[in-house]
């Protein structure tokens, strides 16, 4: 909760509206918070700010098994929504490492991604409607769940990803899907990222829509979580298949395709899960990387996205640049290769503490983000902007785009009370 002067904990949308109006009358800045799992300081209140915790808004209002949707409040924990869907033999496709504590409102406010973006898209792609309390305490609601609806401007997408700076999401309608009849994973080792891209292209062609996840882990990331299903290699891929077909034919397709990849020498070794327990164990290893990094002493985190074709060259150039300017710095690279999102984290040299190493963070960021820009990527893929990357956005953002963002912010929050200092720095004159 940071250093908030006051914490408000509403139970209903009406209470949210009353609290927003009361703080507006007093001119108090208001910071909305869900599960507090963010990594960029977007929902951490500072002194002089009021924290609005949405955890008590945690009701599932409707689960529509015909329309394949769930209407739920912002404080619902993602894992609880997944379980509620599973009880009806349905799938809540959004899946994150923090799903046991992150909340729906925060997922939408940051347009969360996660491990299933390759198949299902980000939170934005799964959202059919929102309920939002505006800066002046009014409510805009679009919870009818229509799949086709073109009544003017798309306000829903304006609030999704705005990190609480334009309005406070209090409820949403999210898409569900029939639960897959079969789910399996394969752990594959390779010599290079270029091979990983070849493997991805082949998997998309041969395995089709059954391919629902494609994660990559560099050697340093693998070492942190060993022992593994296969020996540590320069690169490892964890891929997932989920299908409405029976397990046996899906497994046959996967094994046959992996056999072809081995014959072509595109992969070193491959291991396929043969039970739900093994499937879950494979994913538990991948999702344990962030915790393993913390236990190893921590690192400087960079959440980046790049055009797929550029990723191998970027990683090669970045490793060389870091070795030149910061000898001993250790890249720990892993992430959602299927959608071009890498977590490019930098651990200190052996024997150096993170506290000492952090003094070089601005220079390290410049090296990494300059190369990201060179390859037409983004310095913020799924973690958001918050406070941590607000200066980066101001420095690297398109001037016209930034001017439009500031205009929208002033129009919807003219007093700059909602999450001030997050995403956009102090209001500026309109640009060109």
UniProtKB/TrEMBL annotation:
Pfam families: FAD-oxidase_C, FAD_binding_4. It comes from the Bacteria. The keyword Flavoprotein applies. One of its GO terms (molecular function) is FAD binding. InterPro entries: FAD-bd_oxidored_4_C, FAD-bd_PCMH, FAD-bd_PCMH-like_sf, FAD-bd_PCMH_sub1, FAD-bd_PCMH_sub2, FAD-linked_Oxase-like_C, FAD-oxidored/transferase_4, Oxid_FAD_bind_N. Belongs to the FAD-binding oxidoreductase/transferase type 4 family. This is FAD-binding oxidoreductase. It comes from Inhella gelatinilytica.
